[in-house]
Amino acid sequence: PPEQVIGSSIKTEFEMRDDGPVLMRRPEIDFIDDKAGKPVGIHKFIGQRPLAAFGNSDGDLQMLQWTTAGDGRRFALYVHHTDAEREWAYDRTSHFGKLDKGLDEAKAKGWTVVDMKNDWNVVYPLEAK
Questions:
Q1: Mean pLDDT computed over every residue of the chain
Q2: Would 67 disulfide with which of 47, 48, 53, 114, CB 3.0-4.6 Å?
Q3: How far apart are CA 110 and CA 126, in angstroms?
């Protein structure tokens, strides 16, 4: 459902016009749902720190940092895309989907890293047939 989706946001403002009230989108970005914008979006739309967060690139690092910095038990997991044959592989030197700093932080902080090539028997359901 759209009300459960967090994504990049454009600023919107209320205006009273002759024909009634309207909400107007402004040519201004509220936040980008990547890197430091991820915890900002989570806070804006959910209003609390998550208990668990899952990512697959350095673009998710700040979200995992924010999640695990909370009180009590927290869980952070990276899906490491290592299976170029069945899906896609990207890592420390990739030009897109880079996962470099996140791997270092995951190791240092004891976060779970799932290796797609070695840990997943099936990547897409059609493979199981």
A1: 95
A2: 53
A3: 33
- 110 torsion bin: left (phi>0), alpha (psi -120 to 50), beta (else): left
Please enumerate, as own/partner, the contacts of 116-125 that have beta carbons within 8 Å and a separation of 24 or more: 116/79, 116/80, 116/81, 116/82, 116/83, 116/86, 116/87, 117/82, 117/83, 117/85, 117/86, 117/89, 118/82, 120/83, 123/83, 123/86, 123/87, 124/86, 124/87
Which residues, 6+ apart, have CB-to-CB distance to 115 below 8 Å?
80, 82
Token digits of residue 45: 């739309």
Q: How far apart are CA 129 and CA 117, in angstroms?
A: 19
Asked if 98 contacts 92 with a C-beta cutoff of 8 angstroms, the reply is yes
Token pair in block for residue 119: 């840990």
Kindly state the tokens that stand for 24.
């107007």
* pTM, two decimal places: 0.88
Specify the pLDDT at position 129. 63
pLDDT at residue 62 in the model: 99
Give the 3-state secondary structure of residue 76.
strand
Around Cβ 52, how many Cβ atoms within 10 Å? Answer: 12
